[in-house]
Specification:
CATH architecture of chain B: Up-down Bundle
Structural class of chain A: mainly alpha
Order of helices and strands of chain B: HHHHHHH
Oligomer: heterodimer
Shape of chain A: globular
Strand content of chain A: under 5%
Structural class of chain B: mainly alpha
Largest sheet of chain A: none
Strand content of chain B: under 5%
């Protein structure tokens, strides 16, 4: 009985901490100003929307990942998938939850765009350094 | 002896723990996060000790059982100390560190007493049962304390990126560990202890290393962005 209770409570807190952890990863990138280069590549003029996420992730696959962004991208990717499932199921019945998941998915897209921007900058620097030799 | 997969997870975990200590030395944060470093150094020492016992006595032996559960209980105590250290850092401006320490000791004694009372009621009264019960309950107390600390971080508007991410990673770790122990308790499936628990153990040093590596001590974030539902 005690073990079942601990198991149930632990799963709820696991989900809560995971959501907060992903939000803290996204918040840490929120100050980043997007370069014109990444705006041209992605076609994003203002702020990224939830629909941009898939496109940006495809572009990220073409760009060699920065090792320090890899784990964050994976965590946010799982978060995006959870939000996607929520939006296609429970959120259909609850408009407030629907707008919240949409907002969160847009946050995931912003995180991915910033990672792409950093990736482009990193590769440009690497190429410039190699060109010096 | 553990299989190749279990051994790989074990070595990977040890590499991540060592990675955290090296990273905190490199980023000049070793003393700032002394308890966290101490925890990983002790984890590494306990891995070597367990490996030694495993090679001499085998995975099914009583010696290995004692070595595993008692070293785990000891490590949980050190992690509990690390959590109290994080409490002191969050509340350092309010100057309530003394009360935090007193409460922590009382809670620890209460948990040990409760664990003993649970084991004393069973027929076998094995001393390994006490170590196991203490670990499981301490993980759960750790989880509750981390949850309270997270609430305090949100309430106080904490902005230090490193501190926020370290606390959240710890919350994830405690939740996953408490769930794994509880799962093992009612399924008694050994693969939970052989695979799931070590995988969870790998994630904490990895998450902390990334936090130390990616963010400086001066990095700040907007507290409002951490709240899932804006008020």
């Amino acid at each position: 009985m005690m073990a079942a209770l601990i198991f149930a409570v632990s799963l709820v807190t696991l989900l809560m901490f995971f959501v907060s952890y992903c939000r803290s990863l996204m918040a840490a990138y929120s100050h980043h100003m997007l370069s014109t280069e990444v705006r041209d590549v992605t076609g994003i003029k203002e702020l990224p929307t939830a629909r941009d996420y898939a496109k940006v992730m495809q572009l990220l696959q073409l760009c060699p990942e920065r090792p320090e962004d890899r784990t964050g991208l994976r965590a946010v990717g799982i978060y995006y998938d959870i939000l996607d499932v929520t939006q296609k199921s429970i959120a259909r019945l609850m408009p407030q939850l629907r707008s919240w998941t949409e907002h969160e998915r847009a946050g995931c897209a912003t995180f991915a765009v910033v990672a792409l921007d950093r990736c482009i900058a990193f590769n440009r620097e690497t190429l410039a350094r190699e060109g010096e030799f | 002896m553990p299989g190749p997969l279990a051994a790989t997870i074990w070595y990977l975990g040890a590499a991540f723990e060592l990675g955290f200590v090296v990273c905190s030395v490199y980023r000049k944060s070793f003393l700032r996060y002394l308890f966290l470093n101490l925890y990983f150094l002790l984890t590494l020492a306990s891995s070597v000790f367990r490996h030694f016992v495993l090679q001499h006595s085998g995975v099914g032996s009583a010696e290995y059982r004692y070595a595993y559960f008692y070293s785990d209980a000891l490590l949980t105590l050190v992690l509990y100390g690390a959590l109290i250290g994080l409490y002191s850092r969050v509340f350092e401006e309010l100057r309530v560190s003394k009360y935090v320490r007193i409460c922590a000791v009382l809670l620890l004694l209460g948990t040990a007493g409760f664990s003993y009372a649970v084991v004393a009621q069973s027929q076998s009264r094995l001393s390994t049962d006490f170590a196991y019960e203490l670990s499981q309950n301490l993980y759960f107390v750790g989880l509750v304390l981390t949850y309270v600390l997270w609430g305090a971080i949100l309430k106080l508007g904490e902005t230090r990126t490193r501190l926020v991410q370290i606390v959240l990673s710890l919350g994830l770790y405690f939740s996953a560990y408490a769930a794994s122990y509880a799962l093992f308790n009612f399924t008694e499936n050994n693969s939970v202890m052989v695979y799931l628990v070590p995988i969870v153990g790998c994630l904490l040093p990895l998450a902390w290393t990334i936090t130390l590596w990616r963010h400086s001590e001066e990095a700040r974030l907007v507290p409002a962005r951490l709240v899932a539902v804006p008020r």
